[in-house]
TrEMBL record:
Species of provenance: Mucilaginibacter boryungensis
Family annotation (InterPro entries): Class_I_gatase-like, TAT_signal, TAT_signal_bac_arc
The protein's name: Twin-arginine translocation signal domain-containing protein
Lineage: Bacteria, Pseudomonadati, Bacteroidota, Sphingobacteriia, Sphingobacteriales
PROSITE patterns: TAT
Gene3D superfamilies recorded: 3.40.50.880, Glycosidases
């Protein structure tokens, strides 16, 4: 069969129906403009507004039989699923499967034909398609135990990898995979990710980059995708990769240092501990090593963006705050300049998912990264096996004000349950309710901000800790939970904004600075200027013990700051101080709960037609599946109950800061019913608002009455 002809036919049909033809056809001069050293033109790095906004995304699951495209069975399955996606009001389908993409290099013809067919069917319903794959790994289990582990826990990748003998000759575009792998500094062997049984390609290797670039060009020519997620922009093999000649040359060129032999304690630290505890952060060469590793990844992402042009680019990110990210060189903030969409892996499918408060900081941090990238779309990816887990993910996306990416993950289990649901069936009830009852447009919506929480990545980059071993992100998360519990709207101030005096003084809300050990001179100047102009800040020491490169200051900046005796600078004992600040009247939230169970939390967001109050339950009880467990041995989430019995909530609302319209309470749990919110008379600049959440367990919204 002529696969190339079939792909051309599908592309032609997609063009007639208005679908994009791929950047290679639309921008033929783009590729000539990309030099072989992968420097990307400024016009591409600066960012282009994406032409579609994912709000109700869902995973498009693939299986090994899909490689048998274009058999009638596969083509018919594509048609049925596209129709069902449309019925479920899914607006963006994101590929899941064939994940370790270069393991399928022998089958790219069939694979791209399949994806072109998928795009053709989805585009009939104006559903966008995003490809999603990992470019820098190949699955190479080492030994029988690793082989079985891979087949037990990673079936969702769609597994098709060569045996060890054939793997020696696996290649694409003339590049043998074994020759472009990272080099492990421990033994000189190929970099290996033990958690995923993968060998890892080096982001600084020009042969790998050329291979990936050529694949992207081919993919864009043969598949009319609307956007792409290139996954795993990190180094899963960990701290000891890479020792190849390209990484050694770059480290010497950019940082003037040699990579020391493994085990040298003043660099590697105590390697008898788990790898997450390795590294001597007191050594500036080790800190530079971490920077060099992320530099290469950032350049790789720039290259990808240069190839796909105006098509939106996204990468996977399960976390943005903790120092543990240094181990795998994952730094979304550094690569953000080349990305158009931002995604947070949100909740898993086990019973721990209901304890969601700890994710609020990550969600809003990710959202701020997106907003600072020209209000780029953000979405939360939630995994589930059953419908209630999918509903939980939808609820959290609504509460956070981001798009929802719902993903079943049956194939992550050793065996799929007999009652496994199709992706579209899991998310259809929530999507349909939203479209018909509460189709709030998150684009342009603004959270009510009453406090600004500082998250300074310099602390993470340099491995900074307090004397008791806490890292800066620990303090950030503690504040996030307290702000959430007290219904205080907040946003993040990250390192760049913290160094911008004009940006800081544009707002009068308190600036929360807790255990920010690494502070640049520019940031310190901006903070002092803000305070000198009457700005309010809540400071928890230590502060400014080191500079942005991790070098210790002779005198902490806090000493200078406190000498100035700024009128609105308060020194606090961490996040635990917030309830006392509120009870003493030193801080007055817009929403103050005076009745009902305070384990319901509220967040105000302003939309085009006015403010709405989103309410989320923090006292959820998981109902475990009686048999199913995930690969960690934790029970799979089957259903969700609530510990709350007093669901009639009363708030005092400060009308000097926000004016609420007439509101009605809605929730998928109430079906089509709407309940009027009781609003008592105005008194002392406050309105009293009573919200009845009877029969609601997870989520509700009080929005403008139509």
């Amino acid at each position: 069969m002529n696969f190339n002809k079939n792909r051309r036919d599908f592309l032609k049909m997609a063009a007639i129906s208005g679908a994009g033809l791929g950047v290679a056809n639309s921008f033929p001069s783009l590729y000539a403009a990309i030099p072989h050293n992968h420097q990307v033109p400024d016009m591409l790095i600066s960012g282009i507004t994406p032409y579609f906004i994912p709000r109700r995304a869902a995973s498009w699951w693939c299986t090994i039989e899909d490689l048998q495209w274009s058999q009638k069975k596969i083509v018919d399955k594509i048609k049925r699923r596209a129709e069902n996606f449309a019925k479920a009001k899914i607006d963006t389908a994101i590929n899941f499967g064939f994940h370790i993409r270069f393991d399928f290099s022998n089958y790219f013809g069939q694979l791209h034909g399949y994806y072109a067919n998928v795009c053709e069917e989805l585009h009939k319903y104006d559903i966008k398609f995003m490809d999603h794959y990992s470019c820098n790994h190949v699955e190479r289990p080492r030994g029988e135990a690793e082989f079985k582990k891979l087949h037990k826990g990673q079936r969702h990748h769609v597994l098709l990898f060569p045996d060890p003998i054939a793997a020696q000759f696996a290649q694409y575009e003339g590049y043998f995979f074994k020759d472009i792998c990272e080099v492990d500094l421990i033994d000189g062997g190929r970099g290996y990710s033990k958690q995923y049984q993968m060998e890892t390609f080096c982001h600084n290797n020009p042969n790998f980059l050329d291979m990936h670039r050529k694949y992207l060009i081919r993919l864009a020519k043969e598949v009319p995708f609307d956007g792409i997620e290139v996954d795993d922009m990190c180094t899963y093999a960990g701290l000891t990769t890479c020792g190849c000649k390209y990484c050694r040359e770059r480290f010497k060129r950019d940082y003037g240092s040699e990579i020391p032999p493994f085990g040298q304690k003043d660099f590697w630290g105590d390697t008898t501990k788990p790898m997450a505890k390795w590294g001597n952060y007191e050594n500036p060469v080790f800190r530079d090593w971490l920077r060099m590793k992320t530099d290469g990844i950032v350049d790789h992402v720039k290259m990808i963006k240069g190839v796909i042009g105006d098509k939106p680019l996204m990468s996977c990110c399960s976390s943005t705050g903790p120092m543990s990210l240094n181990v795998i060189s994952l730094d979304l903030e550094k690569m953000a300049g080349s990305l158009d969409f931002f995604m947070l892996e949100n909740v898993g499918f086990n019973v721990k998912s209901v304890d969601w408060m700890g994710m609020d900081a990550e969600a809003l941090h990710q959202k701020d990264i997106a907003q600072k990238r020209g209000n780029a779309p953000a979405m939360a990816l939630s995994y589930t096996i059953y419908e209630k887990g999918g509903y939980l993910g939808w609820c959290l996306s609504r509460f956070w004000g981001v798009g929802n990416w719902s993903s079943t993950l049956n194939q992550r289990l050793e065996e799929d349950p007999a009652d496994a649901m199709e992706q579209e069936d899991v998310i259809s009830p929530s999507n349909l309710w939203e479209v018909h009852n509460s189709d709030l447009n998150i684009i342009g919506a603004k959270d009510l901000v009453e406090a600004r929480l500082v998250s300074n990545r310099y602390c993470r980059d340099n491995g900074w800790h307090t004397k008791d071993g806490a890292e800066h992100w620990d303090k950030v998360k503690a504040w996030s939970v307290q702000l959430l519990k007290n219904n205080v709207g907040y946003r993040f101030v990250r390192s760049e904004e913290l160094g911008n005096g004009d940006a800081l003084t544009k707002e009068t809300t308190p600036l929360i600075i807790d255990s920010v050990g690494c502070v640049s001179d520019r940031q310190f100047k901006a903070i002092k200027g803000y305070l000198a102009k009457g700005g309010t800040a809540w400071l928890t020491l230590p502060f400014g013990t080191h500079n942005e490169k991790g070098f210790k200051r002779d005198i902490p900046l806090s000493a200078t700051l406190l000498k100035e005796k700024y009128k609105h600078l308060m020194v606090l004992d961490g996040a635990q101080s917030l309830p006392q600040l509120i009870s003493s009247g030193k801080f007055k939230p817009v929403l103050k709960q005076v009745k009902g169970d305070n384990r319901w939390v509220a967040r105000i967001r302003i939309y085009n037609d006015g403010p709405a109050i989103h309410l989320m339950n923090t006292a959820l009880t998981p109902i475990a599946h009686p048999v199913l467990k995930d690969n960690s041995g934790t029970a799979v989430l089957k259903d969700i109950a609530s510990k709350i019995t007093d669901n009639e909530l009363t708030f005092e609302v400060d009308t000097t800061r926000i004016s609420l319209p007439k509101l009605s309470v809605m929730s998928p749990e109430l079906g089509q019913a709407q309940r009027r919110v009781h609003m008592a008379g105005h008194q002392n600049s406050y309105d009293t608002v009573t919200i009845d959440l009877a029969d609601v367990k997870l989520y509700a919204v009080a929005q403008k009455t139509k």
